[in-house]
From TrEMBL:
Its EC number is 2.4.99.17. It comes from the Bacteria. SUPFAM superfamilies: QueA-like. This is S-adenosylmethionine:tRNA ribosyltransferase-isomerase. Keywords: Cytoplasm, Glycosyltransferase, Queuosine biosynthesis, S-adenosyl-L-methionine, Transferase. Belongs to the QueA family. Pfam families: Queuosine_synth. Its main location: cytoplasm. PANTHER family: S-ADENOSYLMETHIONINE:TRNA RIBOSYLTRANSFERASE-ISOMERASE (PTHR30307:SF0). It comes from Acinetobacter defluvii. Coiled coil: none annotated. Transfers and isomerizes the ribose moiety from AdoMet to the 7-aminomethyl group of 7-deazaguanine (preQ1-tRNA) to give epoxyqueuosine (oQ-tRNA). It catalyses: 7-aminomethyl-7-carbaguanosine(34) in tRNA + S-adenosyl-L-methionine = epoxyqueuosine(34) in tRNA + adenine + L-methionine + 2 H(+). Signal peptide: none annotated.
Length: 345
């Protein structure tokens, strides 16, 4: 299966670089299992979801993970904290004119914070902060909004690039679970009133979600590693939903990767699980848990486009995307959404 199989033309003006005024004001393209589709508003999920269905949401919170500073020699540097291991040790991406070597010292926050490079881990730098990392990020960091916004983080992103249900104790992501950005408190309350259930899983989204696939044959691509947790409560609610014949609705690709990782680790059936996942879902993958998926529109040739193609089919997805382009749907993190039905196999 070739990378070029997942390409499509996207006009730049369809990239949503700012959110709409209201979270739930987006459009929704409903892609059925047979490949047909209908245009909706996002709030129409109140009619499209049934009582007894279960929404699985990712409750991670986005860190202000981007730091700007300088080297000891005065050169500009940017540090993106990817993963925190204890109060002062992290794996990071570092942008600088020359790649820093072990022992290099970087300074953040008007030189108040020293960051020492201690080594490498795969494509990341291992660094030690002179102060607790989360305190440093809170004081000096910026939200790491996606690169395709082509702008710096602004005040509006502080609220809108976080979900309304994020767990402050799970402050560890460098990108938002963007399908969940469409939900506001009012819509969640109406879904609960209808009898649509919800449960939470956690997957801390890494910057690797924005990295391009660099292999021509997609089966040679190696996914980045992300930490996730599916609790006993979440697993039990999914089991009960399946037993009653209701639908498990993943809200976003990160929730999808979390529950499918847990199922793979537990022998093909959902169970409680915590660990690092490098699961790569592309056409041919046998879904164990997810029946329906709410997701945004994704980049050409991205692993996320491959994931949604696995749930439906490449042909169905690209046809629906062509419709979305022609009808000026808004793309990517602050864009419109799709409801995708799993294609029977």
């Amino acid at each position: 299966m070739q990378l070029s199989d997942f390409n499509f033309d996207l006009p730049d003006e369809l990239i949503a670089r700012y959110p709409l005024e209201a979270r739930s004001a987006s459009r929704l393209l409903h892609l059925n299992a047979d490949g047909s589709y209908q245009d909706h508003h996002f709030t129409d999920i109140l009619d499209l979801f049934e009582a007894g269905d279960l929404m699985v949401l990712n409750d991670t919170k986005v860190m202000k993970a981007r730091l700007k500073g300088k080297r000891a020699t005065g050169g500009a540097v940017e540090v993106l904290v990817e993963r925190i291991f204890d109060q002062t040790i992290a794996h990071c991406h570092i942008k600088a004119s020359n790649s820093p070597k072990a022992g290099a010292e970087l300074f953040m926050g008007s030189d108040e914070v020293k960051v020492t490079v201690t080594g490498r881990h795969e494509n990341l730098f291992v660094v030690e902060f002179s102060q607790p990392i989360l305190q440093v990020l809170d004081a000096y960091g910026q939200l790491p909004i996606p690169p395709y916004f082509n702008r710096e983080a602004e005040a509006i992103d502080t609220e809108r690039y976080q979900t309304v249900f994020n767990d402050p104790t799970k402050l560890a992501s460098v990108a938002a679970p963007t399908a969940s950005l469409h939900f506001d408190e009012d819509l969640l309350a109406k879904l609960a009133q209808k009898g649509v259930n919800k449960t939470f899983v956690t997957l801390h989204v890494g910057a690797g979600t924005f990295l391009p696939v660099r292999t021509t044959d997609i089966e040679n691509h190696i996914m980045h590693s992300e930490w996730c947790e599916v609790s006993e409560t979440a697993a039990q609610m999914i089991q009960e939903t399946q037993a009653h014949g209701n639908k498990v609705i993943a809200i976003g690709t990160t929730a999808t990767r979390a529950v499918e990782s847990a199922a793979q680790a537990c022998g093909g059936k959902i169970g409680a699980w915590t660990g690092d996942t490098q699961i790569f879902i592309y056409p041919g993958y046998p879904f164990c848990v997810v029946d329906r998926l709410i997701t945004n529109f994704h980049l050409p040739e991205s692993t996320l486009l491959m994931l949604v193609s696995a749930l439906s089919s490449k042909e169905n997805i690209l046809k629906a995307y062509q419709h979305a382009v022609e009808n000026k749907y808004r793309f990517f993190s602050y864009g419109d959404a799709m409801l995708i039905e799993k294609t029977s196999v």
